Structure formats: structure tokens, C-alpha cells
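does this look right to u?? adenosine-5'-triphosphate version
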Amino acid sequence: MKEIILLKSGELALKGLNRRNFEDLLMKNMRRRLKDLGSFKVTTAQSTFTVEPLEEGLDLDLAFERLSRVFGISALSRAAAVAKDINAIFEATGPYLADSLKAASTFKVEAKRADKNFPLKSPEICSQLGSKILQDFPHLKVDVRQPDLTINVEVRDKYAFIRGNQTKGAGGLPVGSSGRAALLISGGIDSPVAAWMMAKRGLELVAVHFASPPYTGPQAEAKVHDLLKKVAAYSGRIALFTIPFTKIQEEISKNCPQELFTVIMRRFMMKIAVEIAEKEDCKALITGESLAQVASQTIQALACTDDASTLPVFRPLIGMDKEDVIKISRKIETFDISIRPYEDCCTIFTPKRPRTRPVLKFVKAAESVLDIPALVVEALEGAQLMIIR
Ligand code: ATP
Ligand code: MG
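got this back:
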């Protein structure tokens, strides 16, 4: 018996993007995610996507797991593809869904005929298959409202598909459908979660990380790579730019008031990220900032940070509690990586008493002693590119 994966898309029809483009993008993303697993055919018809293995012995478990992380998919399930013949459907259903049928107490059958030449109408398929199941699994009862198991039969052009309950998909919109944005990623808990949230809204990610060797070591960078790998399981490949940041931090530390160190440093981060964003065709920045979490995340500090960016800054965590952020980070498996103890560039120079309500004109005056354009250019020249997938 042939087994395939059936997928339903989520919020497709919106956004002035036409449905066709949207579906093509989603299929392209699925194909990319399956590429190294062997040969699969990905198609769509009647708002259902079908992933069919074209070789023997492909790892369908792994394919399913990968597809369950593709944004734009609202639900998915494995299905048996059998001949379009009611007896073939009868014979296959019990054995194929045996585990679920044994575990369930109640069930119902749903049927759909895309092929109107099929001799039985949908209600007839339901009642005949239902009776057969009741015979073979006498512990079961029919419940059409809230069954433990819904058996779904769809008669299509080539096959009839039989499936049990669907699994929830990753939801959101296909990555790329909203354009691209540059993510500022530290090694912390927040920024990978912010990345995941915005990729879910259809943004393709380019990542920017500021490293401060020798204050920060290769382990801090490895942490960022590992975090992005987890995010990339959802977002697809991510280009990571690692920027040398030590000189800028030392210059600020030497020449600017201690209590403004953080806000001036964050303005540099924004300026450099904007330069990379523009080269990479990104239309926004993404950070993991959350209101009042630390001194640099008060309204006044965020206003100073915003002023340094000519692009919109997306802060998806702005209104979230840490607890809820951690919940997501556990779900996407970044939490355990984020809590590895390596210092990131901010912890080292952080002043004891940062100004929590910085005033933009004083911040600008304080940083004006530095040659900002030259420092930005020098940092950009030291950028290292790596592709994470
Ligand atoms: P996170 O948990 O994401 O590190 P945080 O709560 O520690 O965030 P900050 O250190 O103030 O907060 O950083 C706020 C945001 O600034 C981060 O979420 C990230 O987007 C960005 N950021 C901080 N440090 C770096 C860095 N070294 N490289 C790139 N971006 C950074
Ligand atoms: Mg941090």
C-alpha cells in the first residue's frame, strides 16, 4: 500500500497576494525542506497539498516531522493511497488505522468525492464503511459530534485517500510571503523566539550577530549557530552575518558616559543592522526586546534605539511576559541552548547604573565624540557570512 502525506494550508486567501503565488511559495518551501530526504512529489488540488514519495524506502516519519514545521500549513496527516474501489477502501481502512481504531472509543466517517463518477455517493461511503468498521472493531461506537477518531475518505482522480485524525501544523504564513527582515540575534532566550514569531508571519530571515572577541569566545558564536539551526527548521535557511563589535564597545566605553553605554551601543547595533538589511533586501529589523525587561527596554530607551534605524523595528515580544517567551522557546527547542552559560557582548561592558530614561538629544551629543560612520564601515568590513540550515 502506498502512503502519502496530506496537508491543509492556513490563512491563504488574504493579503492581496493571489492564491496561486501563495500556494507555489508554500510548495517551494516544502520541497526545499524535503530535498535531502529523497525524491518526493509535491502537488496541490482543491486546497489540499499532497506529498508523495517517488522512491521506495523514503523516511516518511522524518518527512512528516519536517513538514509539521513549515509555516503556512494548518493541519497535516499521513494517508493511505488505495485504488478507487469501494472494496479496496473497505479492506485497507481497518488495517491502516488499526492502532487509532483500537485506541478510540468513538469514531465517525467523513467522505468526499472529487471524482463524481465514483459509483457511491459520499453518504453511502460513510454508512457502508462505518458498518464495516463497527463489525471489525466491536468496542467502538459512532459519535458524529465529538468522535475520538475521524476517518476521512477522499476519492480523488488517481486514488482514494484514507486518513485518521490530523495533526496541527505550524500555522502562520509561508516564509517569504511577507518579504525579508534582518534579525538581531544574541545568545539569549528572547531573540530566537522573536525570530520564530516573525518567520511565522511570513518573513524570510537574515541574521545579524555582534561578537566581541576576545571578551566573547567561539562558544558564544557556536551557541548562536545552534539557536539559528533550530529556528531554521521552521524558517528555512538563514544567512548569518557575524560582526566584530569589540572596537565599537571599547570606543564607547572609553569616550562616552558610563550610564549611556548601553543605549549608545544599541544605536550602533541598529545602524549596522540597517546597512546589512539594505544590502540583503530586508525591509525591517527584528529584535527580542520586551517592554521594561531591562534598562534598555524602557519607552525612552526604545525611542533612542528606534531613532537609529531608518527601517521599521519589529519587536514581537514587546508585550509578552518572560514566562510566555520561555514557553515558546521550549516548544521550538531553543531554551536549553539559550541558557548555556557563555557571555554575550552586552554582559561584559554593561554599566552598573544604566540610564533608564535616556533623552535622545543628550545621547546624540554624547555619541558625537565618536567617528560613527568610520566605526560602522570598519565593523561592516569585518562581517563574516555563514549559511545556517
Ligand atoms: P535576548 O534574550 O534575545 O538576548 P535580552 O533580554 O538579553 O534579549 P538585550 O540583551 O537587551 O535583551 O538585547 C535586546 C535585543 O537586542 C535582543 O533580543 C537582540 O535582538 C538584540 N541583541 C542583543 N545582543 C545582541 C548581539 N550580541 N548581537 C545581535 N543582536 C543582539
Ligand atoms: Mg541578551
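The CA atoms of residues 311 and 319 lie 21 Å apart. idk if thats expected tbh
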